[in-house]
Amino acid sequence: MSYGFIFDLDGVITDxxxxxxxxxxxxxxxxxxxxxxxxNDALRGLPRQExxxxxxxxxQLSEDQIQDWMARKNTYFHESLESFSQDNLLPGVNELMQSxxxxxxxxxxxxxxxxxxxxxxxxxxxxxxxxxxxxxxITNAKPAPDVFLWVAGGLRLIPQKCVIFExxxxxxxxxxxxxxxxxxxxxxxxxxxxxxxxxxxxxxGISDFIPPLYDL
Length: 216
Fold this sequence. Notes:
Structural class: alpha/beta
CATH class of the largest domain: Alpha Beta
Distance between the termini: 11 Å
Strand order of the largest sheet: 3-2-1-4-5-6
Number of strands: 6
Number of domains: 2
Strand content: 5-15%
Helix content: 40-55%
Shape: globular
Mean pLDDT: 92
Low-confidence stretches: none
Number of helices: 9
């Protein structure tokens, strides 16, 4: 019987939150905006343009400025990726993925990030995914379930045979809407709607998540 694990990227496979924060903060300082770590938390799980709408606060931007600000932030983030390696994998991620592959569990990535592919390449895990979807592939971002449904379709599995691993409220809502089993990774106060909430993947094996809650 086939099952699938579908992973978000940021906060699940690797922690790029600090790199994103520093990139947004650099842009904010250049443009005279206030940007705090709490502000950065509000951008968790959102695609770049949605993040910019929150980032700019009351500042009115022309379309050219919007494109310029997004490009600059992305440039700063890519500069930070130069130091990325497999050492940046969060604890337990590689072990769980390798075990899944050995046990014929299909693996998918479903991220809102347009940088997911270069990040996974630097992490050395790009070839582990059977299906890969990022912000370049899906029109409707989380909390719409589209990216998860697209990946499940590529894996040729119904949602009830898949487990979603997410760290954001938007991602949890997307998984629930799509009728997937959802494992929240992070604080319970943020992820309490997930079927199960854990601190991280370290110490967890495939038997902790298979069969999924919605197994038929």
